[in-house]
Specification:
6-stranded antiparallel sheet
Length: about 280
């Protein structure tokens, strides 16, 4: 999930990164320059390089131990969708145990900051404890399922988001940002207390950063898993799942490269099976 914080730049040089979305003639010019000379802004991917940072919980807040303890005291049954199978609760407990180990690590990221210089800067929670659901709601096989992201169902997610927002405000108070006249417009400088920050975050948060995982999790069947360590679907012959849905927990990175690794492993498994 991510919250989009919006800024104005009173001293910003042009063009800005937002021109990629608002000035198509400029985009065409830069693309032509790249094809002709291999120079210009298209030599670096948007939202890459030095524009992205990944931070551990320890680097976000000195209250990380209290946050971990708060998570341990949360009744996970209340954070799951109503009517969830009991095996899902067992899997949820196992996932939380693994994620809390990540929270305690100084090296495992829980937050992604993508500050490209555009007007909206996304603050991303990449290790949420909340869990959503995808349910069948029709006998029509072509009908869309019902999605519920379960955003902020686990109370600790909000505690971490508040810490993310506070750390980001420290970051943008640095002199280089002042040089471009950075001014927060949404939520705005008047938002200061934890209660006000929470209300603002709930208003500007999107439920996904387009890295969904876990709907066919590689976990033991008794933990609500769908595939085994060979990517085979439990109870079905000749069927494997090879995509991000097999990851029970979002990795501390973008999911694309991890999916490539899963696909390479799947190819090896399938070739090994064909030779046996």
């Amino acid at each position: 999930m991510f919250a989009g914080v919006t800024y104005d730049y009173s001293k910003y040089p042009f063009p800005t990164p937002d021109w990629y979305f608002s000035n198509q003639s400029w985009v065409a010019q830069q693309l032509a320059t790249y094809y002709q000379n291999r120079t210009g802004p298209d030599t670096q991917a948007y939202l890459s390089g030095t524009t992205v940072a990944f931070l551990s919980l320890q680097r976000l807040t000195d209250q990380y131990r209290q946050i971990i303890q708060s998570a341990k005291e949360t009744d996970l049954a209340n954070a799951l969708p109503a009517g969830a199978d009991k095996t899902l609760l067992q899997g949820y407990k196992a996932q939380q145990s693994a994620i809390l180990a990540d929270y305690a690590s100084p090296d495992t990221a829980v937050h992604e900051l993508a500050a490209s210089g555009g007007e909206t800067i996304p603050l991303v929670l990449i290790k949420p404890l909340s869990r959503g659901s995808i349910l069948i709601n029709s006998t029509d096989p072509l009908a869309d399922p019902v999605f519920d992201y379960g955003t902020f169902q686990h109370p600790v997610d909000m505690q971490i988001f508040i810490a993310i927002y506070k750390k980001f405000r420290q970051f943008v108070a640095a002199e280089p940002w002042k040089a471009v006249g950075l001014e927060e417009t949404v939520p705005g400088p008047s938002v200061q207390s934890d209660q006000a920050i929470e209300a603002a975050i709930r208003n500007i948060t999107h439920s996904t950063w387009s890295h969904p995982v876990g709907t066919c999790a590689m976990m033991p069947k008794e933990h609500g898993g769908v595939v085994d360590s060979q990517l085979r679907v439990y109870g079905v012959k000749g069927l494997r799942v090879v995509d991000a849905s097999v990851m029970p927990i979002i990795p501390a990175t973008h999911t694309s490269s991890t999916v490539y690794a899963v696909a390479e492993k799947a190819a090896d498994l399938i070739k090994q099976r064909s030779r046996s």
